[in-house]
Design goal:
Blueprint (H helix, E strand, L loop, with lengths): L23 H10 L14 E2 L11 H7 L10 H14 L3 E5 L2 H12 L5 E4 L4 H9 L3 E4 L20 H11 L7 E4 L12 H14 L3 E4 L3 H11 L8 H10 L3 E5 L10 E5 L2 H14 L10 H14 L2 H20 L12 E5 H4 L9 H13 L1 E2 L1 E3 L1 H4 L15 E5 L7 H15 L8 E5 L10 E4 L2
Parallel strand pairs: 1-10, 3-4, 5-6, 6-7
Antiparallel strand pairs: 2-8, 7-8, 9-12, 11-12, 13-14
Helix pairs in contact: 1-14, 2-11, 3-11, 4-5, 4-10, 8-9, 12-16, 14-16
Amino acid sequence: MNLFDYPAEPFRIKSVEPVRMISREEREKVIKAAGFNTFLIPSDDVYIDLLTDSGTNAMSDRQWAGMMMGDEAYAGSRNFLHLEETVRELFGFRYLVPTHQGRGAENLLSQIAIRPGQYIPGNMYFTTTRYHQERNGGIFADVIRDEAHEASLSVPFKGNIDLHKLQRLINEKGAENIAYVCLAVTVNLAGGQPVSMRNIREVRELTARYGIKLFFDATRCVENAYFIREQEEGYADKPIADIVREMFSYGDGCTMSGKKDCLVNIGGFLCLNDEELFSQAKELVVVYEGMPSYGGMAGRDMEAMAIGLRESMQFEYIEHRVKQVRYLGNRLLEAGIPIIEPIGGHAVFLDARRFCPHLTQEQFPAQSLAASLYLESGVRSMERGIVSAGRDQHTGDHHHPKLETVRLTIPRRVYTYRHMDIVADAVISLYQKRQHIKGLRFVYEPKQLRFFTARFEEIG
């Protein structure tokens, strides 16, 4: 590994938060008390927290300064106007509806854009997205390319939509029965895999022929733009902001979790071009979130988001962000650890099927691996497999995703390369004694989004 391939952190540290490593004996008590669910571990008992990159970002000095300029007026906040102006400039959509986070935007879009019985094709499901779609009578259809379901296959733009699958769905169900196409950039559960600009353009051309709307899950759009610049012909010298703007020029709107690429700790928004849909969303946001000029956010949060969105477009920031993740992934690959390839933009995904071949999928190998990693090292990660996939709402059977993974998610501007070394060493150490990892079974299973609050016990 050539260290010159990995740029140093493009920032200086001005404030620190102490962390501590508790003993293995204490960690044993903690993980059992948490029901072997890493979501239920108190953060004070975590050494390196890779549970998620959602809302765990470190904000810049300019963002903190912006927080002091929060206009907390109930209506017409100047911070909303700043956010609206920023999003229109960078994303290009006409209308903005602020929400408390991304799933607030998913809730609004699902209610205004889906009729019961309609299909929503997308490039692999995401947990909260599919929940809102199904809750409003929709039927999710996976139209991602087949290669995305093969963890060990390293090909560029594994997040692309398979145009033949999308065309076949339209032919079989009829365009009038397609609510919209949901295009995620990047694809989280596929390993943070990007979508090419060519594929985005071709999806737009196909949907336009049938009058089908195209909405983006824009949560990690800046990371997707970096991969396009790095890997797609014709984009090597283009600014990240220009690539983002072109991506969204092919869509009718987007949902956005500001807790990722907007570099803040809370917030999100829904973007739309259609005036009628915008009017409906404004009515619903008052019911579920707040006034259309603040949604679920304080003025100071909207100001920090507007500043953070511009900062995320800086090449030095996003290059370091992606390559820090790549550094961890390459360390694991060099040690023979099975992960999803190629390495994505926000996380390294351990392939629990190959890591724990002695466990069946019904023994929740990814959930057990995440719990074992915490016990081994104090590093918190999360399951992305059969537990996250949930159950079929009609049959009650488990969904059985082909990918059974543990996500090591890197917060933005929080950890250093040395932290990545500690994580890598912990995973390598655990891999050497992987045969001792035990399976799990439910002792409490929520009906919806069970991975957040479920509890487990070890199988003897």
